[in-house]
Amino acid sequence: MSAEAQSVIAALRACDATVATAESLTGGLLCSTLVAVSGASAVVRGGVVAYAAEVKVSMLDVPADLVARAGTVDPDTTRAMAIGVRYRLAADYGLATTGVAGPDPVEGKPVGLVFVAVADRGGACVRRLELPGDRPEVRRGATVAALQLLLEVLCAAA
């Protein structure tokens, strides 16, 4: 269980808010990390693993023309995923991850390039990361970065 996940769950409980996750490269690791914390059921609405581009479009309402133009590893795509999962799962916050875990580049983008996003009723913010390491390390780094970003947003809102 991560300290970041414990802090996020505590902050969500303190402000009586909920979160939903939209994951690509993390493949469920983000939601799993959150629900490993006791009491998560009070604040975690659920998660969507949208690994394929068409799932991002159909399940998270990411515009198909955005995916066609910018690809799946893109800040605007990540923003749309966070907004889409927030709406689809009726959560106060949507948390999204996209990127390239490796071992090979994707869409001409390098291994380790990751975007994480948080959406709330006021909009969404996206963070770009360049994470070192192998596939498991990049996935773990993306998970931690997403939790840290959500915690920053929650602390700013408090």
Secondary structure topology:
Blueprint: H1 3-14, E1 19-23, H2 29-35, E2 44-49, H3 53-60, H4 64-70, H5 75-88, E3 93-99, E4 113-120, E5 123-130, H6 135-157
Helix pairs in contact: 1-6
Description:
- With 158 residues, the chain is α/β, with parallel strands linked by helices.
- It has a single domain, classed as CinA-like (Maf protein, Alpha-Beta Complex).
- The protein contains six helices and five strands, in the order H-E-H-E-H-H-H-E-E-E-H.
- The protein has helices at residues 3-14, 29-35, 53-60, 64-70, 75-88, 135-157, and strands spanning 19-23, 44-49, 93-99, 113-120, 123-130.
- Strands 2-1-3-4-5 form a five-stranded mixed beta sheet, with helices on both faces.
- It is globular, with a radius of gyration of 14 Å.
Helix content: 40-55%
Uncertain residue ranges: none
Q: What is the total number of structural domains? A: 1
Side-by-side strand order of the widest sheet = 2-1-3-4-5
Amino-to-carboxy terminus distance: 24 Å
State the shape: globular
- Classified by CATH, the class is Alpha Beta
Q: Beta fraction of the residues?
A: 15-25%
- The CATH architecture: Alpha-Beta Complex
Number of helices: 6
DSSP E strands, number: 5
CATH superfamily: CinA-like
Annotation keywords:
5 strands, 158 residues, Maf protein
